[in-house]
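ESCALATION

Customer reports they have been waiting on this structure for their group meeting. Please prioritize. Original submission:
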Amino acid sequence: MKPSFRSYLFWLIAAMTLLGLGGCASTPAVNSEAAAAAPTERYIIGPGDSLEIFVRDNPGLSTTVPVRPDGRISIPLVQSIMAAGRTPDELAGDLEKALSQYIRDPLVTVIVKSFVGAYSQQVRVVGQAVTPKAVPYRSGMTLLDVMIDVGGLTKFAAGNGAKIVRHLPDGSEQVIPVRLGDLMNGEVKDNVAMHPGDILIIPQSLF
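Update from on-call: job pushed to the front of the queue and completed.
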């Protein structure tokens, strides 16, 4: 007995349904909870930064200035204004308010040309790095990025005994052991994300 058209139709629909489920299963799910938990990062201006100031329709007021050790900058018509601890947008608003005494409806844009950042925005490396120093934090920075910036480990370093000291929002400290020796030898699983304000301590080997 030949199968009826209705039987062919049933098996065709069943096969298409199974193929559709297989396609859905192979599509990686997006971790929306993790994405929502990612913090919005804002750059905080610090002493030593170089700022480019644009004042619309006023080229004589547009300039590039350094942030002084006291955290202040000076531009034409504004002799001294605090920049450190402000975001570029916040500083632009402060400058617009200060310039409004002299020009009508000033529109200011602040661009960070070179940055050091506030202490809270730096990653400090101490101990047995080739060049121990404070590294400006960048969005998405990892431990490997930091090690590249400081030139790697010295021959006296006990890399696998290193640790990250992290200050938490509640004022407490978290100590995170890291295996720098393994990381520098290609063990990418030992790479970790860095946070602004982290301190990386690299001890000296006892042997």
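Sent to customer with the following note: The domain at 50-114 is CATH 3.30.1950.10 (wza like fold).
Escalation resolved.
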